[in-house]
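Thread amino acids onto this structure.
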């Protein structure tokens, strides 16, 4: 539990302080880094799927508290109302309580010989799919550079994780490439529904 709280606090505070900086803002506002944080806290930190889910949820909830806490403090210092971000906090805290447990379980699966393949494919796919979903909606060079870096990391992940088993690595990479587009379409539709990007859909 302590690991989830500490990691959540550190990540949330970093996001709160980095938001507004070129490049860093894109990282902060993407879902993928938050998913990786939730997966990290349960990787070798949980001994059951239930605990992994709890750790993932705690990490993202605490991270949201820290992120919006720093943001509210900055708004107060600037003379603005600190309550302006409450609606966004409620939205993303609720989303974190859904995504956090899933990512936590996926992180725990990485330690399982039987389930690690699925976990690697899931983490890599979302890491490539989100940049694809956002690419045509955010027309900024620094954002596109971040998208390229995140997608490249996603593609490299299966190759690095299964570096001792080339066939498994290539099979995982092939699945990532197959699944990326439909997942990107689903992410684009979800982000439009949440009003995080503007309509219409551009991947279909």
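Threaded sequence (204 positions):
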């Amino acid at each position: 539990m302590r690991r989830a709280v500490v990691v959540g606090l550190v990540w949330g505070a970093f996001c709160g302080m980095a938001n507004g900086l070129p490049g860093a803002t894109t990282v902060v506002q993407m879902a993928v880094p938050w998913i990786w944080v939730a997966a990290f806290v349960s990787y070798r930190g949980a001994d059951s799927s239930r605990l992994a889910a709890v750790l993932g949820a705690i990490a993202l909830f605490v991270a949201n508290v820290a992120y919006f806490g720093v943001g509210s403090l900055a708004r107060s210092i600037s003379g603005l109302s600190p309550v302006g971000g409450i609606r966004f906090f409620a939205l993303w805290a609720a989303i974190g309580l859904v995504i956090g447990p899933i990512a936590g379980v996926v992180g725990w699966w990485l330690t399982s010989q039987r389930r690690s393949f699925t976990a690697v494919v899931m983490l890599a796919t979302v890491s490539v799919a989100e940049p694809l979903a956002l690419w045509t909606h955010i027309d900024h060079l620094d954002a596109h550079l971040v998208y390229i870096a995140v997608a490249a990391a996603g593609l490299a992940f299966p190759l690095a994780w299964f570096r001792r088993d080339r066939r498994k690595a290539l099979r995982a990479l092939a699945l990532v490439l197959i699944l990326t587009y439909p997942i990107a379409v689903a992410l684009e539709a979800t982000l439009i529904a949440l009003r995080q990007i503007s309509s219409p859909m551009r991947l279909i």
